[in-house]
Design a protein that fits this description.
Elements: E1 4-8, H1 12-24, E2 28-32, H2 35-45, E3 49-53, E4 55-56, E5 59-60, H3 61-71, E6 76-80, H4 85-94, E7 98-101, H5 106-121, E8 128-131, E9 134-137, E10 142-147, E11 150-153, H6 158-168, E12 174-176, H7 177-184, H8 194-208, E13 215-218, E14 222-225
Parallel strand pairs: 1-2, 1-3, 3-6, 6-7
Antiparallel strand pairs: 4-5, 8-9, 9-10, 10-11, 12-14, 13-14
Helix pairs in contact: 1-5, 2-3, 6-7, 6-8
Length: about 230
């Protein structure tokens, strides 16, 4: 079954163009033109990826992105006319996976979709992916840092590997301690602060392998894996 893409765009001509190219690439397409429909369709359809315009009737795309991030881990590519670094960084920090500025080449947008889905899904038949210099092989349960001097494997405990893999699936997203704990040890009675210990050790091991500053604390939230 092909992946379903939800296109959230209020300009009919742009939405038609995007839909035509996305369908031609082999994906199923759903469309929404305002905040209310976008949130309803996302909850009902559970798309594999969302192309999301920022300027929408009834609100804006940042509001939709924020709600999506509270619900599910759906990949989101922002599509907007705002070539504004502040808006771009704000969207990425909330959890957008990529950012396309109008006017755009629709073929490029399709390639962005493919790239994000490959990263999130690990590619057909593959369970390995990279985030910057960090490479994670889920089947072999190996994480390594690839730098100019070569590849260095990270000496991780099973829990540390699970935490790193969980965060790396959604780079740039800020996770609360409770979210991380629930993802890697849902039946554990450990306190959220145990996550701080795991993250502290992870950051030390990443730094020793040459991937320093990949995990950063987010004040008032928790932690984020950020590939510069």
């Amino acid at each position: 079954m092909s992946n379903r893409i939800l296109i959230v765009e209020d300009e009919t001509e742009i939405a038609d163009l995007l839909a035509a190219y996305v369908r031609r690439a082999g994906y199923e397409v759903s469309r929404a033109a305002n905040v209310q429909d976008a949130l309803r369709d996302h909850a009902q359809i559970r798309p594999d990826l969302v192309l999301l315009d920022i300027g929408l009737p009834g609100g804006d795309g940042v509001e939709v992105l924020t709600t999506i991030r509270r619900r599910f881990d759906t990949p989101v590519i922002m599509v907007t006319a705002l070539d504004d670094e502040v808006t771009k960084l704000s969207s990425l920090r909330i959890g957008a996976d990529d950012y396309v500025v109008k006017p755009f080449n629709p073929s490029e947008v399709v390639e962005r979709i493919r790239a994000v889905l490959r990263r999130v899904q690990g590619g057909t038949g593959r369970r390995a992916f990279s985030v910057g210099d960090l490479h994670i092989d889920l089947d072999a349960r190996i994480a390594s840092c690839r730098r100019n001097q070569g590849e260095q494997r990270l000496p991780l405990t099973p829990t540390e590997f699970e935490v790193l893999a969980f965060m790396a699936r959604q780079p740039r997203r800020a996770f609360s301690r409770a979210e991380i704990l629930q993802a890697v040890a849902p039946d554990s009675e450990a306190y959220d602060r145990v996550v701080d210990s795991h993250l502290s050790k992870l950051r030390q091991k990443l730094a020793a392998a040459g991937c320093a500053r990949m995990i950063e604390p987010v004040r008032g939230v928790g932690y984020r894996l950020w590939s510069e």
